[in-house]
Every structure is written in C-alpha cells, then in structure tokens.
Please model this.
Amino acid sequence: MKLFVTDLDGTLLSSDHTCSDYNMETLKKASSMGVKICIASGRSYGDIIKLIKGYDLNPYIISSNGASAYDDKGNKIHSVSIPKNEVVQILQYLDSKNLQYEASTDEYTYATQDGLNLLHKELEDVGESDTVKKNKLYNDIIGLVLSQKNLKIVPTLEDLLNEVDSVNSISSLSAYLHKIKNAKRHFTMDSRLSTFSSVKYNFELTSSKTSKGVALTKLADSLNIPLENVAAIGDNYNDISMLKVAGYKGAMANAVPNVISLAEYIAPSNDENGVAEFLESLL
Model:
C-alpha cells in the first residue's frame, strides 16, 4: 500500500464530528513510514484544513465529493464545478420546496439563516418525545451543519447567490426523509448532476463529470501510484466510487449495506477508531 484514503463524516470523524487522537496518530505513523495519506470528503477544502489543524499532518485532500483535489502542499490538481446558471436553478428549486441548502466553494460553505431557522422548526415539529433520540437527531442535523469550520451564514437565498459564482457542491438537510427522497428523485433526472447521500438526512450534488473515484484516480495518476496500491475506507453512498477503484477496500461497521458489500475488511465503527484499525492491518 502506497496511498491510504479515508472519508471524514461517519468514518474518520466520531459521531460528535471530531477526530480521535488515536486515529490521527495512526495516520501520522503511516505517513512516517512513507505511506501517502489522503482525506476524501463531501466537505469543502477550507473546512477539512481547519478540522485537521493542529495534528501535524499534511494530507492530500479530495474535497466536495471529488469536485476538487489537492496535493500535500495545497496545490489544486483537479477541479470540476457547477456553473452559476445551474447553481441558481438548483437553489431556487430547493427554496421553493422549503428545503435547507448549502453551497460550497474551496474556501467557504455558504448557508442561509432562513435555512437554519427551517431546520430548527422541523426538529421542533417532528415532535420526538424520546430525549436521547431527539438529541441524536439534533446532532445529526444541526450538529453537522455547525461542525463545518468554514461555515458562512448569510440571511437569504439572494444574499447567498450574490456571494458565489460557480460552486463545487450543493447539499441539503431535512428532518423529514420524504422531502430528501423527493428532491433526490428530482435531481437524479438531471444528467448534469451526480446525486448521493453522505448521511441519512441529506443529499449532495456535484457535477456528473466527477466523483470521489474520479478524483482519486487523478490523484493516484499524478503520484504514479497504481490503483492496486491504494487503500480506501468509507461508510456511505458517496464513498462507493472511490472504493470501486481502490485496490484495498474497507468499510466501517456503521456503513450502509452497499458499502459493506464492496469491502474486503469491515472495521469497527467511527466511534471505535475503525480507521486506525484498518490502517494498522495494512502496515
């Protein structure tokens, strides 16, 4: 193994959206042994950089579900974005369906205060009586939004559109799964876009010209590393494309069935340092 790739949410990050010291120390150990480390996430580049700040690790990065890829010095080596006219159409549709949305560039993830207010209202209206389940739902939805280190909140859709030109990815969260399902179905019909989920309550959009798998292939090629010498681990649907191209495939115990069925190694959950265990098995 010459290149090790890990997803973030549900994989390297624990349920509280933080990195465990053990996972990070194991990544550093592998790096010291000559293994190149890559983080591949639906999050923006700026968010990923801030999440790993302080861990003395300079990984390669695949951000926004493959819309961008960077070398270990921060140089961009791959980029595919959604053009402004499509961004306007997508966000106006989501707004009309009363859905929260975010738009990510390299530097920031933009969200609206209107969208955050909507999520809070949905969580109240769901009326979950079990306190433990209610807190988990809040963490899965609001906690995920606020865990983004480069989040920029603007008042309305109009303000957001004034801030961005083309974007790397667009995502939406809702406490109501039927709203997510219906919107996903709508965008699946658009050949310009790739549609998938990274957590239960969301869906994400990128250009159909890229994916984590496409970006990983570009990265491996730039490093002259055959894909059979690449290991990757993930937990959700947006990880499938990179697992399909990697020579060594790992899945978290908390992964969706489609990911588990691809894997040769099932690691413990993201709350049990599963990434470290998978990586240790390869060293």
Remarks:
- The two ends are 8 Å apart (CA to CA).
- The chain has two domains: 3-80+210-282, 84-207.
